[in-house]
Prior knowledge:
The complex is a heterodimer of chains A (781) and B (155).
Chain A: H1 6-21, E1 53-55, E2 61-65, H2 74-86, E3 93-97, H3 114-141, E4 149-151, E5 154-156, E6 162-164, H4 165-169, H5 202-207, E7 222-227, E8 236-239, H6 241-246, H7 252-262, H8 281-287, E9 291-297, E10 300-305, H9 308-321, E11 322-324, H10 336-341, E12 345-353, E13 362-370, E14 382-388, E15 391-396, H11 401-412, E16 419-423, H12 435-446, E17 454-457, H13 460-466, E18 473-481, E19 487-496, E20 549-556, H14 571-588, H15 593-599, H16 604-617, E21 629-637, E22 644-654, E23 659-670, H17 677-697, E24 725-730, H18 746-761, H19 772-780
Parallel strand pairs in A: 2-3, 7-17, 15-16, 19-20, 23-24
Antiparallel strand pairs in A: 1-2, 4-5, 5-6, 7-10, 8-11, 9-10, 12-20, 13-18, 14-15, 14-17, 18-19, 21-22, 22-23
Chain B: E1 3-7, E2 10-14, H1 22-29, E3 48-51, E4 54-57, E5 70-72, H2 85-92, H3 102-115, H4 121-127, H5 138-150
Parallel strand pairs in B: 1-5
Antiparallel strand pairs in B: 1-2, 3-4, 3-5
Helix pairs in contact in B: 2-5
Amino acid sequence: MNAISRRDVVAGLGGITLAFTLAPRHTFAQQPATQQPRLPGSLDNNRLLDAWIRIGTDGNATVCTGKVELGQGIVTALAQIAAEELDLPLERVQMISGDTERTPNEGVTAGSQSIENSGTALRLAGAQVRAILLELAAKRLGVDVAALKVADGVIAAPDGRKLGYGELAAAADLHREATAQARTKPASAHRIVGKSIARRDIPAKVMGGAAFVQDLRLPGMLHGRVVRPPGYGAKLEGFDEARIKAVRGGTLVGWIAEREMLQGRIARPLGDGAKAQGFDEARLKAMLPGVVAVVRDGSFLGVIAEREEHAIKASLVLAESARWTAGPRLPEEARIYDHLLALPTEDKVVNEKEAALPGGVKVLEATYRKPYMAHAAIGPSCAIAQLTDGKMTVWTHSQGVFPLRGNLAMALKMRPENIRCIHAEGSGCYGHNAADDVALDAALLARAAGGRPVRVQWMRADEFLWEPFGAAMVMKARAALSPDGRIADWNYDVWSNTHSTRPSEPGGVNLLASWYLAEPQRPSPPRMQPQPNGGGDRNAVPLYDFPRQRITNHLIREMPLRVSALRTLGAYANVFAMESFLDELALLANADPVAFRLAHMKDARARAVIEAVAKKAGWKPGTRGDGSKGRGIGFAKYKNLATYVAVIADVEVDRASGRIAVPRIYAAVDAGQIINPDGLENQIEGGIVQSMSWTLKEEVKFDSSEISSRDWATYPILTMPEAPAVEIELIDRPNERSLGAGEASQGPAVAAIANAFAAATGKRLRDLPLTPARVKAALQG
Amino acid sequence: MAINIKVNGAMHSVPAEPDTPLLYVLRNDLGLNGAKFGCGLAQCGACTVLVDGKPARSCVTPIDTLGQSEITTVEGLGTLERPHALQAAFMAEQAAQCGYCIAGIIMAAKALLDRNPQPSAAEVRQALADNLCRCGTHNRIVRAVLRAAQNGGRI
């Protein structure tokens, strides 16, 4: 691990500080990409070189990326790529990320695509900037470019004369079209790429620096909270004065707990004799101590106060006094899969291979299910908004500042150019959580704040009750095994809601509060996301070589619970189902699970990770579980186009309690050329541990009247004592292109755990999560 | 209304009501970022600080219960130039992904090392059982605490 320099730390913090102290230098209009040659990665729709890289007269580089830090280490990895091609020391590369006025538009930071898209752009832009500087130097020094040497931002002629990048900066015209023609470095010349460089964002996180949007404090900042309806679609009718008079007593701590209990529920009925009556909103405000404004727009209700605890207190008073109509009832959780399967679907065969079916086949069928799951970041979503001189500035941990700006413009009825969204890190995120929603909340409240900035952080219950969950899914698999023990036919159907209701979806506004305004917006219609990325059908197409197969995606358009992108989209569930079913078929064929996979896999890199993990774990073919201990394997190439991961898990089942322990997990990983080995390992291991949490514990609970997962007691996640030991082998392929890795281990991990349980006990669990109750039922059955 | 509290060795007079949870005072009156709002229910540990050396959930600790207690936040442990052994170890192990839980975890680990300077891995895991991490950084966090213990975590 490299030492962390003070400069690194300052550069890391700079993103936040600079973000609101520097005026924008350029605005980068997107250029039409028509009739121009396609450029690789994100260069294609951000074609100006200085949109990506600028060189200062101090010889330092300012590197802009539209991708944002989500705790995955991307800003450090992108800095490595840029510094490498620029031949600059890492600490002389300052990164700016995710700012609608200063960085390229790279859409949403999602889908494990940042290294592939932004990294490719920065690699090519860096090489071109270096080439431009070299040409300039050659002219000034009167020597051939080929005779020049570059090290650490200094260009040297054979006679010893030197020119620093800073001396050339003024003359270097980078406001020109990127060509993608400059030669990038071969892997053998890399000094920064491929190294475990310490992440830029970590020092502030362990020192108590301003690391998160939650930590930004702007001059004159106010605090806001929003009172949500008791359920989806409920409408605000008015307020009951009697309730306001009924309060208060108790302490703020108790109030906060009470607020958490009340959110998402209709206030308790009034006591005998109390009368509900209409309420004057001006009086309401006057009765709330420390409150600057109560904001109501249709059924959007929020409050701003000088002090945060007063905003919280006021939001409880408002929640208790607000009178709502009831929204539609939720389906019963116990019948959720039947409910979903009965809804209309849009069906598409996404992959089909024909071959003759041999005689004498054995047919196997199985159905797997995955519940709704929450993103459940430790820190609830937060944003700060400020409206000055008709311009709205929003500090946000959104995954996509440009799509967010577009949605905010529609919801606020402002022109996009009058809105600036600046990324600052948040907690999590693991996909589309409430980051975008809270940005609109803050903006709506900022309109009533007289030019002062308003910080809104959701409370714990707000986050659990209102975030868009990862969708519940049903997977049905049916396969035929030939007499020689090979898979001769593979049929696979997946039913799911959409996995993206992001602001980037066309045809609507996808911000929670916008649907509750006096002039409400409509969400985008759900649409089928095409393969190979897919949505519900992500990773539903086997990478295995089956002679005959048919994969069908059934998109359920109606969404009884709010859903959107949760890390891996459908891949977690599809890999769980497919890899579980493979083991069921291997059992039927009396074959070893590793050998069975290899027998159906031609892809050499897939074979390599399967073989590597088997070797690492000391896999012994034919080992039988003893009723409680067992091991299982799972494999996937994420989206069939990103990182290859194979996982082996060891489980121990406590037959009395039904608890599954996972003492150890092994993984082998091929992400092509590795940019930062430690960063890659951190992502892969994090994905494995998070997947184990999903697999053993997580499901959103609800009944027909409310969502009942509202805090960490009702939505438990994996704790420190429960975490498995994890051993990872990285297979570096420096001459292959880098592959996205951030979501690559979740699918293989769930499959390995489920298969290990089956190997241990001889019983197959097909419904997630693998709870003690399900384990006990399976063991008794 | 003002209340006096002692944080990281210094007395502060804060204009907050007596029942205000310490978390809001630390963050908004004293400008300290370390303690984070996670749940407000003492369930997640993101807001953990030390009160007289013992870990406390600042989100449910009203300031009028603190009296003359010494409150320590992660900012009181070390600086970038002279990080505390735990902070140095978390950087060395790169023991964070999003990192929102980390400051609270460092404070819980500080309390552990103060009473048990050479804990086993199992003891570290147990001491952090009520500090939640969502990114799956569990093992790195445990390794960082063990590394700090080796390097004399009491400094």
